[in-house]
Write a structure and sequence with these properties.
alpha+beta, Outer membrane efflux proteins (OEP), four-stranded antiparallel β-sheet, 65% helix, elongated, disordered N terminus, signal, transmembrane beta strand, membrane
């Protein structure tokens, strides 16, 4: 008999040893939020995208610098016939027979006026960088919120397993007591079988809870960039924070909106660039050239400086459609902003209602636990006095366990819904 019920204790012990075979780590909720936004693979990818956008902005600023080119040419030529139309004072030819040509050039062009192409090109790159940065923040907030959900789900699984394990000890002792009473003819064998069945059901529920905890723990490790074998120690949530479900509704605080507004600035910059194509380009130019034709001509110190003007005539009939495309892009972003604003308002409303419901359920769970404790006490007293049967006692035990689990899950659910509300209203900030 003792060996049979010792197996239950061994099962709990073996499951507990699983945690010791891994590296244990203690994490607070704030740690989870920071790790998700900084150490996860997705977060690092987002950082790389923002860095790329920043470098493109730095590259765009170089367009204000002058263009400089240097070139050199060497040509081997045949023996050409050279006739100089310059009086030489002699009727005979000069006998010139050049067969090599050297040319060297240096040119510098500095833009003075481009109609706004350069200025708006730089601004477009900067606004694109801002849009990418805001989009990255929005994605990181999503990652952190996902980590919060996993962290609280792990807490719920751990609490469920702990409460079931506690009840397993009580149920195992109850089976031992029932076995003794059955041997002494105090209770029927059927009552003992009911107690054993309930103990088996508790063991199954415990294994399911531990499986859930392991799966969620693995998912959380992956998301946070931790070693896969890390075992997050039993989570202890702090007291519930003071929650205001009616916090200010301002969709403009959401980074999705800020990103779209920056994308709108990019579209406006592109429109300005297209309009600038109607203007001429004025530039300062300077250079130096050297020329040497063997046996004929040498030119050095041929420096030059001046102004240049260019105008793309094709823009008069090609640029209209580009402008219309840019204007349509602006209109599309405005429509997208309206859609996202409506979506955020719905999210805020749903999050507010979820927090109110979670608060109410949490209060009811606390009442239900007190009621189930009192109910179990009364039923146990009646059972000891022969007034209640085994079914009543076992049912009261299950109700008490379920009330404890509901209260533990309800506490985590309330915190989860509050963080959902922080995210919806744009107050879920990451550092």
């Amino acid at each position: 008999m003792k060996i049979k019920y010792w197996s239950t204790a061994c099962l709990l012990l073996a499951t507990s040893v699983f945690g010791f075979a891994q590296e244990k780590k203690h994490l607070e909720l704030a740690d989870v939020i920071i790790l998700a936004a900084s150490q996860s693979s997705n977060a690092k990818l987002l950082d790389a995208q923002v860095k790329t956008s920043q470098l493109r902005y730095e590259e765009a600023k170089d367009s204000r610098l002058p263009e400089s080119k240097i070139s050199g040419t060497y040509l081997a030529i045949n023996n050409p016939t050279v006739n100089l139309n310059i009086p030489t004072g002699s009727g005979d030819g000069l006998g010139i027979s050049p067969n090599q040509l050297f040319i060297g050039q240096l040119s510098v062009n500095m833009p003075l006026y481009t109609g706004g192409k350069i200025k708006n090109g730089i601004k477009s790159a900067e606004d694109s960088w801002k849009a990418t940065a805001y989009e990255s923040l929005a994605s990181k907030e999503q990652l952190s919120l996902q980590a919060v959900h996993l962290y609280l789900a792990l807490y719920q699984a751990q609490q469920t397993a702990d409460l079931i394990a506690e009840n397993i000890k009580k149920a195992a002792q109850q089976v031992v007591d029932f076995k003794a009473m059955e041997e002494n003819g105090i209770i029927a064998r059927n009552d003992l079988l009911k107690a054993e069945l309930q103990l088996s059901n508790f063991n199954v529920s415990y294994q399911e809870a531990m499986k859930n905890a392991k799966v969620i723990n693995y998912q959380l490790n992956t998301l946070l960039g931790l070693d896969e074998q890390t075992w997050i120690e039993h989570i202890r949530l702090e007291e519930l924070p003071s929650m205001d479900e009616s916090m200010v509704e301002d969709p403009a605080e959401r980074n999705e909106i800020k990103s779209l507004l920056s994308q709108k600035d990019v579209a406006q910059d592109q429109l300005n660039i297209n309009k600038a194509a109607y203007h001429p380009t004025l530039f300062a130019t300077g250079g130096y050239a050297a020329l040497h034709v063997q046996n004929l001509l040498t030119v050095t110190n041929a420096a030059n400086i001046g102004l240049g003007l260019s105008y793309d005539i094709g823009s008069l009939y090609k640029n209209k459609k580009k402008i219309r495309v840019a204007q349509q892009q602006l209109h599309s972003i405005d429509e997208h902003l309206a859609v996202v604003n409506d979506k955020i308002k719905n999210e805020i409303n749903e999050a507010q209602e979820n927090v109110r419901l979670a608060k109410t359920k949490n209060s009811l769970y606390a009442e239900a636990l007190a009621q189930s404790n009192e109910n179990y006490r009364i039923v146990k007293d009646k059972y000891d006095n022969g007034v209640a049967d085994t079914d009543d006692l076992l049912e009261a035990d299950v109700q008490q366990l379920q009330s404890k689990i509901n209260l533990a899950l309800g506490k985590a659910s309330l915190i989860e819904k509050y963080y959902d509300l922080l995210f919806a209203t744009g107050h879920f900030t990451i550092k």
